[in-house]
Amino acid sequence: MSTTSDSQSLLQYGANVTHGVSRITEGIMKSGKGSYVEYDDGRKMLDFTCGIGVTSLGHCHPKVSKAAADQCMDIVHVQCSIAFHEPYLRLIQKLLPIMPDPSLDSFFFWNSGSEAVEATLKLARTVTGRQNFICMQGAYHGRTFGAMAVTRSKTIYSKGVAPLMPGVFTMPFPFWHQLGLPPSTPESTLVAQSLYQLELLLAQQTAPSDTAAIIVEPVLGEGGYVPAPAAFLKGLREVCDKHGILLIADEVQCGFARTGTFFAIEESGVRPDIMVIAKGLANGFPLSGVISRKELTDKLQPGSFGGTYAGNAVSCAAACAVVDAMHAEDILLNVRARSAELLASLHGLKAAYPGHILDVRGRGLMLAVEFATPAGPGAAHDAVASPQVGKTLAARVAKRCIEKGMLILTTSVYEVVRFIPPLNISAADLKKGAEIFKEAVEEVVREG
């Protein structure tokens, strides 16, 4: 085991890491177990990030890690264009019963969420013979070229690299910020406004006959942890059915039990034509998936999809163990129970600081707190801009949480802190995290 001096000598090579990669902490993370991680200097941190929604069953879940280790002793790499491997097929066997709709019966596994989005865009264009896509304002789908083209959460992801993939059009997500409305606006009004803009988009910018797909996150992730109302998703489905457009559900962050159902879109009852999964699928092992209908994927030419590491055997074995653990450990039940506890704490904090906290939102253990700001995007036109509060509250609160021993992240162009704790977190650790957050908010508010 490395000593602190060994780690310090290694840290000099941090200067050789591409400057485009950012970090929220200094030092080297050495180990993790359950809801905690440890650094080389001895710091033990409660992890409310899960590697941005990846280690959903906690760090080094014993059943998942054992499944991966055992697979390493059988075969590590079976290239998908050469042969099947058992974990790939067994994973399909385990996923089929939990699909949000039985029509989703065709699977392609890849390595990352961005790659899966790339494959999804290719699939949609291929099977429809159409070129255009409609994405959501505030959406995040990845940082590779096609995925970056449909990402609309922050300009930093595509700044300076235009022209992006052509044929992409953006519509507003039913989020009060994006529609220039107050937080108290009824959901029905938000939905009606967004769907109206979609109709205008199809009439003015991309004809339905030119539009391959609409891609949507059932819970907006990087855009601020905003759940899509069921009525909105149903409205998208109706438009897609009317015009022969495919509906793509990006469940990379909100899927795999994160919101209290296996997939976030389940709550709406809406059937996607294509679903993208990744992150929590294999609890830290690189794996993503594109799931669709055989009637669509049977139109693909063999060899048009693939990839050197696509559907790696070790990652698939880990994912199989994840599905088994979620069933055996009643993970969905725990998510709902811990979600109710965390929401109660956050709503209590909002009641205590109504001038500083604008919103508490999300589903399951994908929750967010939005702070007021005097200087957000379009503050001069924003109904909730608040000159009475300090700037960068979210970043300051997150930094204070880290100083107090809890990893937590901000998100979106607004002042939002997001909560992504392990789905199997204990009531005691959840309470500890909520108390750390409360203390951080109290201190930052006092500082102004």
Automatic annotation (TrEMBL):
Cited InterPro entries: Aminotrans_3 (IPR005814), Aminotrans_3_PPA_site (IPR049704), Class-III_PLP-dep_AT (IPR050103), PyrdxlP-dep_Trfase (IPR015424), PyrdxlP-dep_Trfase_major (IPR015421), PyrdxlP-dep_Trfase_small (IPR015422)
Named cofactor requirement(s): pyridoxal 5'-phosphate
Keywords in alphabetical order: Aminotransferase, Pyridoxal phosphate, Transferase
GO molecular function: identical protein binding; pyridoxal phosphate binding; transaminase activity
Keyword Transferase appears in the UniProt entry: yes
CDD domains: OAT_like (cd00610)
Keyword Oxidoreductase: no
Superkingdom to which the source organism belongs: Eukaryota
Listed SUPFAM superfamilies: PLP-dependent transferases (SSF53383)
Family: Belongs to the class-III pyridoxal-phosphate-dependent aminotransferase family.
UniProt name for this protein: Pyridoxal phosphate-dependent transferase
Lineage: Eukaryota, Fungi, Dikarya, Basidiomycota, Agaricomycotina
